[in-house]
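User: Structure please.
Assistant: Input sequence and predicted structure:
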Amino acid sequence: MSIPTAFPLSFHVPKRLLDSAWERRQAYGPLMQALTPLGAVCELRPHNRDTALAQIEADQAFHIFDRGEIQHPRALNFGSAYIAPYYYLDPVGTRYLSSIAAEPFDAAVIDRFAAKQFQADLYATTAAKRKSRYDQPVEKLPLPHGCIAVFLQTESHRGVTEALYVTMRRMIKALLSRADPRPIIVKPHPMDINFDTFGWLVRQSQKDARLQISYANVHDILDACALVVTINSAVGIEAMVHDRPVITCGQADFHHCTEVVRSRHDFDAAIARAEARDWPYAEFLYWFYKQNCLSLKSPSLGEDVLAKIAATGYFAQR
């Protein structure tokens, strides 16, 4: 990999990061600290999605977009990859839009010992400490063992291009229509203040005693449950850390290790398959994070970023 002694690197970030030194230090601080000694001449500029492509064409710098969806030979997209300290640096997008979704996963080529150790490390830093992306309750709330856990996502923050195979209400109605006596624990999204959604959930719980609304710690729910159902929430990845089978009802870049449901009529068969299969979660987590994402705590963070940039052909062109 041939790298110029100096090259311009533009980070396109939300205005709140430009206004807050603390926010800039959280992710971009480590990035710039790792890249500057390797020749990157870094600048931060406001992320304007409408003018992004024009800004790239106006110079010869390499561009990195915060939670972007920019596809250009001199651009990558940067964003949290569900579990800290892992991040995307992706040519297509982040989270459900990332290029990982289209990559083939083969558990047989992953070192099982290394994968199991990695899964154990993730468990120790997240599940054992009961920590998640959003703040979680410290107290332990009562939960029925062996339940079906449904994790909702806030609709107000959902992108209009996101693929939903089954909507939230149809997902819950389909679960309630099944001849399955297990309790169904529904955890609303921590950032959701949709009173219409909450009222609807309350009415469903009054009609069917199996449905219970809970704001318990996500890891306590994952410990108690037998199965996780979500659209494409980060909890799908967290469930794999707990070795829990996952049903996804929307486009997800971690679909390789979930049963994907595209119709409310598919739940019975999908749940049966999900609970019968011995899923290679450790291998998948290792592949997803160690081979496709970046760790902000990696001692080779700068080199890892340069390798991602080099893969676009940018250095060779220069």
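Residues 243 and 281 are 7 Å apart (CA to CA).
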